Structures are given as structure tokens and as C-alpha cells.
Amino acid sequence: MSEITLQGLEKRYGETTAVEDVSIEIADGELLCLLGPSGSGKSTTLRMIAGLESPTEGTIHIDGEDVTDQPAYDRNTSTVFQDWALFPHKTVLENVAFGLKMRGVSAERREERAREMLERVQMAGHEDDDPTNLSGGQKQRVALARSLAVNPDVLLLDEPLSNLDKRLREDMQIELREIHEDVEETFVHVTHDQDEAFTLADRIGIMNEGKLIQVGDPDEVYENPKNRFIEGFLGDTNFVDATVTRTAVDAVHVDTELDHELVLPTDRDHDLEAGTELTLSLRPEILSITQASAEADDQRVVADGSTTTAVPGRIDNVIYRGSTVRYSVSVNETSLFAERNAGETGDLSAGDEVNLEWDGEEVLAFRTDGSRVSL
Ligand SMILES: Nc1ncnc2c1ncn2[C@@H]1O[C@H](COP(=O)(O)OP(=O)(O)OP(=O)(O)O)[C@@H](O)[C@H]1O
Ligand SMILES: [Mg+2]
């Protein structure tokens, strides 16, 4: 049992508010990723859970016990840091056994446990190695084994994979997930890497400027971003400025920098007045790009109940990104990007006249204060 409850957590350093009013319940055995840009308060939140920083306000409960004023060594948490911090003058085995030694575990028992942990992170055979001679990925595994060896209720991970190259990082993400399933402990994992959060997390908590903006399952936050910040942070998207021209029973009509009146289908009454400024998000995956044919020019199909919109454009750039190909398309003065899977690119190339088409149902809209308009 190791659920964590943060209630109104706040940390100020002089004038700086590092963490502001963070409240969340983390379930026993959950893997929660705290995701956010640099300086958003992720590490500070984690360090408060660990007891390495004391909150200016708010409370922390672990397993129902108020640990807010408890020192780090009294909490059964263990932390893995970005820089691994292995002891250079100890062997790998001694490194992993270190925490157990500090807890007064017998030499025999701690060696047994350390070997078991090294096996779990696939580092058996390296017991006698000098950690300074290990690769980044191996150091990371040893650090993980060391943190797991003490059998913590809560494992706190602060960007432990960010010093690894892409390929190794992706492998370790999968392994970390497997280890989490295996040990059945509560993990709080801090990262600024969206892909990592999506790969690892049971739930993602997105932070910005010290605040926890949204918490949810990965697909939930992706499908249903609460505000414009999250929409921009979770993936590349095309933001398009728009102004409401009129609202109808089933649609909001907007004028956009694409120079086309776009129709946003809606199923509710709106208080959006004509003139209201919005930002639309057209994600690349909703844009289908096809060679322009004469009759497809600038058509907007709404009459038959279809919510498809098509605009003509021109390919400025084709960027190969491995598994996908990205097209930068100018539509009047605006540049939008669309994507296709490599292998499905057809014969599109720079300079081609194309049509971009999307379903209006897939467009998200945000007010100037960043809040989402529910359409
Ligand atoms: N000990 C400190 N003294 C003063 N300000 C601090 C201290 N620790 C953190 N801060 C400030 O608090 C804010 C949040 O920092 P924090 O380290 O929690 O961010 P982060 O989300 O972990 O960022 P990163 O992704 O860069 O690690 C930052 O503005 C930072 O400068
Ligand atoms: Mg940090």
C-alpha cells in the first residue's frame, strides 16, 4: 500500500513560486508521469514527495500518513536522479547494496538482494565492475537497481533516462515499464519528453509554471487537452487564428487567416459572439493532402451534412522524418504542415499544388485566455 496524496502543495523560493497549489491523488501501484517544460516545477514536486524539500504550504500523505514534516530518511521513498550519482570507488554490487547497508541489513542478505536486483535490470555479470567504466545505459540500470534494492513503497524518478541516446532511451522506457509491472510499487516519473510519458505512464500529470494543469490517461489528455498550452505541448500542431463570424444551431462559423470561412460543427448552444477571437488547432494527422485536381479547387462541403473542409495550397517543403514525411504547405499567407507515412507519399513534391482536407469535427478551438471551447 503506497498511495500518495498531495493537497494544496506549494513551494516558494523568495519571489519565485516553483510549485503552486498542486493537488493530486496517486493510486497505489500507479505509474504517474509528471510532464512539463523546463522550470515548470516537476523536480520540486518530486523532491517534496521525497522529503528533500519542505513545502511552503500544503500537505503530503503517503499511505494515509501525513509525512509533510517527516525527514527524507523516515519516508519509504527512493529516488533515481538524472545524473545517476553512483559511487565511483565502489563496485557495481556495492553500489546496489549501499542503501541496504545503511538500513542495517546483514552482509549476506544484502549481497543476495543486490544480485537479485542486478539480474532484474539485466546487469548480472557486472557485479565486480567499476561503475565509471559502464556505459550510460548500464549506469542507469545500476542506479535503478540501487533504488529498487531498498524495496521502497514509492520510487521517484527524476528524468533518469534523459542522458541516454534516443534508441537506448526507448529501450529503457519499455524495460522500466516492465520493471514497474514486476515490482508493483508506486512510481512517480518526471520527464519533459512527451513520447516518454506516453510510453510509460498509467496517467500523465501535465505541469506548467508550477501548476498541475491536467491529469489523466495518456489518450484522454491527448484527445481532450484542457487548454491551448497542453495542445501545443503534447505534439506539433497547426495553430490558426480565427474570428467568429456567426453561430448557428449546429455550427460556429469563423473567419481565419487561411482566408476561408471555416465551419466548426457543434452540438450545443454557444455564447460565442461575432468578433470573438479564437485559436484553432489543426493537427497534422487530421489533414489529408492530395494532388489538386481541377474540380476540387476551393470547395467547401457543408450542404449535405458532411463536415469536410478542403482548401487549396502549395507544397513549400518536403521533410523526411524517418517513418513519416512532413509537408509544409502554404495556404495563402499561412503555412500548415501535414504528414503522411513514409511509403504512402505518392508522388507529392515541393512546388505541387495540393488540396488539404479535414473533418471539421476534428478541429479544436481555444479562447484567447487559452481555455478550450467545447464544441
Ligand atoms: N533551490 C531553488 N532556489 C530557487 N529557485 C529554485 C530552486 N529550485 C527550483 N527553483 C525554481 O523553481 C522553478 C521550478 O524548478 P524545477 O526544478 O522544479 O523545474 P523542472 O520542471 O524540474 O525543470 P527541468 O525540466 O528544467 O528540470 C524554476 O523556476 C526554478 O528556477
Ligand atoms: Mg527538473
Name the descriptors.
21 strands, binds adenosine-5'-triphosphate, OB fold (Dihydrolipoamide Acetyltransferase, E2P), 6-stranded antiparallel sheet, alpha+beta, 375 residues, binds magnesium ion, 8 helices
Characterization of this structure:
The chain has 2 domains: 4-225, Rossmann fold (3-Layer(aba) Sandwich); 238-373, OB fold (Dihydrolipoamide Acetyltransferase, E2P), CATH 2.40.50.100. Residues 296-303 have low confidence and may be disordered. The protein has helices spanning 42-50, 92-102, 107-120, 136-149, 166-183, 194-200, 218-223, 228-234, and strands at residues 4-13, 16-26, 31-35, 57-62, 65-66, 77-80, 154-158, 186-191, 203-208, 211-216, 238-247, 251-256, 261-265, 277-282, 288-291, 308-321, 324-331, 334-341, 353-359, 364-367, 372-373. It is elongated, with a radius of gyration of 25 Å. Helix content is 23%, strand content 36%. The protein is of the alpha+beta class and 375 residues long. The protein has 8 helices and 21 strands. The longest helix has 18 residues, at 166-183. The structure holds adenosine-5'-triphosphate and magnesium ion.
